[in-house]
Amino acid sequence: MLVLVGLVLCLAPADSLKAFPPKFQVGKLNGDVVVKCSTAEQHVTWTQNGEPEPMAELVAEGRALTIVGLDLPAAGNYSCWAGGVLLDSIYVVVSGTREEGMNVSCQAESYRGSFRCSWAGPRSAVFRARLTLSDGSLGEWVPASRRRGRFNASFVDPFFCPFAEELRPLRLQLEGLSDTSYINFSSQFFIRDIVRPDPPQELSVQRLGEHLHLAWAPPASWPLPRSYFALLYRLQYELPNGTQADKYVEGEEETWLWDSVQQVRISCRDPYTSPAWSPWSPWHGTGAAQQRRLRGL
Question: What is the pLDDT of residues 85-131, one digit of tens each?
Fold first, then answer.
C-alpha cells in the first residue's frame, strides 16, 4: 500500500462538480486573480456559476477578467459569453495552506504493466490522475470513478517490459476538486513493489493411501513462462483438532500432506520481491471426515 502526502487547499462552496473541469485556476485568498477568455472576440460578458451578477468584485477589460480580493464566495465557475454564445469557462478555486495525509493504494496483478489505484476523498469531489511512464513520457489524464466510497483509476504502461529490470520508477500525479478542497500530490514507485497476484486456481486433492496429493495452477493473470516467473505458494490446512498449519512450496505446483488434513486453501506471491500475498483460494475439503466414518463402520 502506498501512503502519499499531498497538499490540500481550501475552496469555496460552489456548484457541485460532476466531472473534472477542462480548465481551472487556483488563486490566493484575498489576492487578485486574472482569468482570460480564449476567444477572438474583443467584448465579452461574464457569469459566475451561471449567474449574471457574480458575488465578487470584478474588473473586466477586453477578454480578461480580474477578480479583486478573491474570497470563498467568489470561487466557482466563470464563463465568458458573446451575446448568447458560450465562449469559454474557467473554474476558480481559493488556495490555502493546510496539509493533510492521503491514503492511496495501488495494486498490480502481475508484471504486465497494468495496475489500478484507489483512495478516499470527499463525496462531492472529482479526481483525475496521470502517469509519467517508464520511458519518461507523460501519459494522458485519466478520470477517476467512485465506487463504495472510494475513487478508482486504472493505468497501463505500454512501454513496460516484464523481462527487463525496472530502472526508472513510475510517477503518479493526482488532482482533485470539490466544493471544499483542491488536492494535488504525486509519488514514485516501481511495479514490482505493488504486485499482488490473484489466487492460484484449479486446486485439487487426491487421496493416495495415507497421503493426500495436492496440485494447482498459477493464477490465469500471471505471466509466462513459469520457469522465469516463479511463485512461492503458501498452503494452509486444518487438522482434526481444529488447529491450522502452513506449508510453503516454491516453484512447484504439487505437494503431499497427511490424509488426516480436513481442508486446505492456497495463496501465492513473487518469491524474489516483497509484495503482498495473494488473496486465499476458497477452502477445499479433503473428505477426511467421511473416511473416518467409513472406517468406523
Answer: 999 999 988 875 444 557 889 999 999 999 999 988 877 788 999 99
Please, what sign has the CA dihedral across residues 247, 249, 252, 253?
positive
Residue 259: φ, ψ to 5°: -75, -5
Gap between the Cα atoms of 43 and 159, Å rounded: 48
- 216's grid cell: 494447482
The owner of cell 490540500 is 8
DSSP helix/strand/coil, 118: strand
**In the structure, what pLDDT confidence band is assigned to residue 15 with cuts at 50, 70 and 90?**
low
Q: Which of 60, 49, 118, 52 is nearest to 90 (CA)?
A: 49
pTM: 0.75
From CA 2, how far away is CA 155, in angstroms rounded?
Answer: 16
Task: Find out whether 206 and 130 touch, Cβ atoms under 8 Å.
Answer: no
Q: Is 290 helix (H, G, I), strand (E, B) or coil?
A: helix
d(CA 75, CA 106): 33
CB 1, CB 187: distance < 8 Å: no
Give the count of alpha carbons within 13 A of 234, CB side only.
17
In angstroms, the CA 231 to CA 233 distance is 6
- For 215, list phi and psi in degrees, rounded to 5: -140, 155
Contacting residues for 95 by C-beta, under 8 A, at least 6 apart: 9, 10, 26, 27, 28, 29, 182
Nearest Cα neighbor of 79 from 23, 20, 127 is 23
Residue type for position 178: S
